[in-house]
Amino acid sequence: MKTLTPSVYPAGTVRALLKTDQVTEATRQALTERLKTPPHQPTFFSADEFALLTAICDRLIPQDGRSERIDTVSSIDQRLAGNKTNGWRYDSMPADGEAYKRGLQGIQESAQAMFGQYFEALSETQRDLVLKGVQSAEAPGPIWQTMPANRFFEELLAEATESYYSHPLAQEEIGYVGMADVPAWQRIGLNQLEHREPREIANPD
User: Fold this and answer.
1) What is d(CA 55, CA 35) in angstroms, rounded to the nearest whole number?
2) DSSP structural state of residue 82
């Protein structure tokens, strides 16, 4: 089976566009703020819960090769502290805030049941096994008798991914410049790119 290699795009593309008139002022302000946001002090989660969620998200979206880490957790804390939702939830799930609190407790229970340690003390391989158990609804622990583990995993992964790719540095990784929409989009055919869209760098391999 052929292994797919990730696409590589030039660094700095989104940051350069933010300095142009191809981005609305509101979008520029929002993305610039994400680039300079200082360390976040949790307001919804306790310090221990925030650290646990950070450790979990670091396995869901590993950032080993990155010189500047993207914070995927603070926006979740801020949303829940503001009691904001996307307007729906599975009928098998509690409200978002309660789901996160219980889900984090459930992951700790699973880590303890499977390896006798807290999640943060586990190796990367062990952490992944715990999360795979949650994803497949096979993780042990009493919390998962009251809330479907796989639904919690689905919701957490989706929000962590949304948080990651809302950051300009993550958008640069995938060549995304959809926020630069002031000039409109004229080149909409297959494989057609606007001049402001980055071109993929040829893989040296």
Assistant:
1) 21
2) T
Give the Cα separation of 104 and 42 in Å (integer): 15
Beta carbons of 118 and 46 less than 8 angstroms apart: no
What is the pLDDT averaged over residues 68-84? 95
- Measured between alpha carbons, how far is 99 from 151 in angstroms, rounded to an integer? 10
Q: Which two tokens stand for residue 127?
A: 């952490």
CA gap 163, 122 in Å, rounded: 25
Q: Which two tokens stand for residue 107?
A: 């992951």
Name the pTM for this structure. 0.89
Please, which residues have CB within 8 angstroms of residue 119's CB and are 6 or more apart in sequence? 52, 55, 56, 107, 108, 111, 127, 130
85-120 confidence digits (pLDDT tens) = 989 999 999 999 999 999 999 999 999 999 999 999
DSSP state of 157: H
Q: Which residue from 166, 159, 136, 160 is spatially nearest to 148, judged by alpha carbons?
A: 136
CB 191 within 8 A of CB 172: no
The alpha carbon torsion through 80, 73, 94, 114 (nearest 10 deg) reads -150
Contact 127, 119 (CB under 8 A): yes
One-letter amino acid at 55 equals: A
CA neighbor of 77 nearest in space, from 117, 46, 106, 123: 46
Q: Give the whole-angstrom CA distance, residue 71 versus residue 205.
A: 31
